[in-house]
Design brief:
This protein is α/β, with parallel strands linked by helices and about 325 residues long. It is built from eleven helices and eight strands. The protein folds into two domains: about 10-185, Up-down Bundle (de novo design (two linked rop proteins)); about 200-325, Glutaredoxin, CATH 3.40.30.10. About 50% of the residues lie in helices and about 5% in strands. A hairpin with a 2-residue loop joins strand 6 and strand 7. Helix 3 runs antiparallel to helix 4 and helix 4 crosses helix 6. Residues about 190-195 have low confidence and may be disordered.
Length: about 325
């Protein structure tokens, strides 16, 4: 009597699992795409002093070829859903040959897609940790989805030639990485302050090289564009207030993002006495300011450096958003 080898459970359920995970990825990236296109604010619990999801959405890396990066992620996940479920549409008893061919083709499609998505997600995790320096649960979740898809694709069937998988991974990984670096070649990733170009803001990172002037701080070396000045005037018009300390490097980063011309338009309060940095001024004590910089906009307090796009969203600013700098 010939005993047939039982099919491992993972081989039976790999395609439904891949489809389900890809569907979760599509929901996540679809939501981020909607928020990016509508200028909304992603539901993300941010911690004081830590940048979050909206900072990621407003960064220059969040736009590729003029479209939201999340849109391309959404299309990739939808493609994985289609590849996972396509063979299941065939009746097992009929069109058996066609189904086998489709299964083989879609497995290779899933493998190539999962490798490309995993490599790209790894690069995005690098940007998140070392360039944008933010905590974005949606981004981390998407990266985990991509990695899960790759693992399930590899263990979800009997591959005749394991070496071919590694060869495919090497080729697809290299092509994806080179393409990714090419797409982001125009984004300034130096972390310093230089000349910005229209539509391509640059990152502001301030490291003090000299002691601040008591009561004044450091000199604002960036220049404002029309968008920064318009936002500053809007914030002043609605009664927004910024609270800073002259010895605070993060406060200076906020100033650099506005530029010297726009910052003059803002209503801001100096919280540290010139002769005693530890003593808080009455205005800041009355406002119960605990960290610098802090904003009070429409009665709501916001702590930490805020990207100008984020200030525009929470303040209801509807003007030009071609801001020159971001954090």
């Amino acid at each position: 009597m010939i005993r047939r080898r039982s099919t491992p459970w993972i081989h039976k359920w790999s395609r439904p699992l891949i489809g389900a995970i890809a569907g979760c990825g599509a929901l996540t990236t679809g939501y981020l795409t909607f928020e990016k296109l509508t200028g909304g604010s992603a539901a993300c619990v941010a911690q004081a002093g830590v940048k979050g999801c909206n900072d990621v959405l407003s960064s220059p890396w969040a736009t590729v070829l003029g479209q939201p990066l999340a849109l391309f992620g959404f299309l990739a996940y939808i493609s994985m859903v289609i590849l996972a479920f396509a063979p299941l549409a065939f009746n097992s008893a009929e069109n058996n040959h066609s189904r086998k061919q489709l299964e083989n083709l879609t497995w290779w499609g899933l493998l190539i897609g999962a490798i490309a998505m995993s490599v790209f997600s790894s690069y995005l995790m690098y940007l998140l940790a070392f360039q944008i320096k933010a905590l974005c649960p949606y981004c981390i979740g998407s990266a985990l989805f991509s990695l899960s898809l790759l693992v399930l694709t590899i263990i979800g069937r009997d591959w005749e030639d394991i070496g071919q998988i590694f060869f495919t991974a090497l080729i697809v990984g290299m092509v994806t990485l080179i393409g990714t670096l090419g797409v982001y070649a125009g984004v300034n990733q130096q972390g310093g302050i230089g000349e910005s170009t229209p539509g391509k803001p640059i990152s502001v990172a301030f490291t003090p090289k000299e002691e601040p002037k008591p009561g004044i701080g450091w000199e604002i070396t960036t220049t404002s564009g029309e968008a920064e000045i318009a936002l500053a005037r809007h914030l002043t018009k609605i009664g927004a207030k910024e609270y800073v300390a002259w010895w605070c490097p993060h406060c200076h980063e906020q100033k650099l993002m506005f530029g010297k011309e726009a910052y003059k338009e803002l209503t801001h309060f100096e919280c540290a006495a010139a002769d005693n940095p530890r003593m808080q001024t009455p205005d800041c004590a009355a406002a119960k300011i605990e960290s610098y910089p802090s904003w009070i906009i429409n009665g709501q307090k916001y702590s930490g450096v805020q990207n100008l796009n984020e200030l525009a969203k929470i303040s209801g600013y509807t003007g030009d958003r071609n801001f020159k700098y971001f954090k």
